[in-house]
Design a protein that fits this description.
about 120 residues, mainly alpha, 2 helices, about 0% strand
Length: about 120
């Protein structure tokens, strides 16, 4: 519906400017709404991530506590084995003192020869 008069063109331009301004206002409002929705959704995602990290931290704590317990048990077992080994060596030395002296002299010789090189 193009008008041929200059007055009609002026009215169309004013109407077009008004429509464009209204469109800009609507787009601004829409962008604010989308931004609000995105920040709300981002907050929910962030809450989910925080909850998952908290669960992960609890799992790691449980694993470390279990590993600490198992580590103490292993240290105790090694200590008992070491204590038994020392007792066995002491018993062998008491039962065979000459053999123990010969073994000690042999080990000393081997170690001194190795250290010279």
């Amino acid at each position: 519906m193009a008008r041929s008069s200059t007055n009609g063109t002026s009215i169309n331009v004013k109407s077009l400017k008004k429509d464009l301004q209204s469109l800009r206002d609507d787009m601004l409002e829409l962008s604010k709404q989308v931004e609000g929705l995105a920040s709300n959704a981002g907050g929910e995602v962030l809450d989910d991530v925080k909850a998952n990290l908290a669960r992960f931290g609890e799992t790691v704590d449980d694993l470390l506590a279990h590993a600490g317990t198992r580590g103490r048990e292993a240290v105790d077992a090694v200590g008992e084995m070491g204590g038994n080994a020392v007792e066995n060596v002491e018993d062998a030395i008491r039962e065979h003192p000459l053999s123990a002296i010969a073994i000690a002299v042999g080990l000393g010789f081997v170690l001194s020869t190795t250290m010279r090189r």
